[in-house]
Amino acid sequence: MVEAALERRVDTLEEYMKELSYQSMRTEMELARLAREMREFKNEMRDFKDEMREFKNEMRDFKDEMRDFKNEMRAFRDEAERDRKRMDKQWGELSNRLGTLAEDIVAPNLPRIARELLGCETPELVGVRLVRHLGGATYELDALVVCPGLALVNETKSKLKGKHLDELVEKVAAFPNFYPEFRRERVLGIAASLSIDVSLVHRATRLGLLVMGMGDDTMEVLNPEVVAGGADRAVPGEA
Prior knowledge:
The structure is a single chain. The protein is 59% helix and 18% strand. The protein is rod-shaped. By secondary structure, the protein is α/β, with parallel strands linked by helices. The protein has four helices and six strands. The chain has a six-stranded mixed β-sheet.
């Protein structure tokens, strides 16, 4: 009876030992699996850290590129602003040069025109941008050349138009009122511009006006026949 009880205990102990061995084996397998997963996780984390480091490097490079781009854009804006100011200055200078076209180009040629075309060797008067006032009225001339028996009245425009010819005819008619000292001289109007449409030259000829434009080398009279009196006179506003 004692042997039977001992045998049962031995059997029970063997079962416990088997179960303990099985549980130990499962624990080792689970620990091995966990260790493998931890290694994989560590590797993934290492890869992630490497990717993050690369990303940070890329972001740093991107920031550097953006900083360089901003610096380039700032330099471009500064250069564009300098160019704009330079162009504004140049346009202003060009406008001023166009505004002084009479003094710079036309007026120096008027005495020559008077000499070659009208036989005036020594002008009595050569004036530029003349202004006179009479009874509240203002009379302005871009240039004036007075020779014995002749007064050459000039108006200069950057772009000559038909209305300018009519205005010049009116100035020619009003000249004796504002310059009574030259009342006895014949008054001849001369319109000047760097570029003139041929139709305006024909119209000026009909109005009895000389037209002076830029030739190959210098300013030239484009309708010298007016001096000979061969052109029919017209009134302002005539087409």
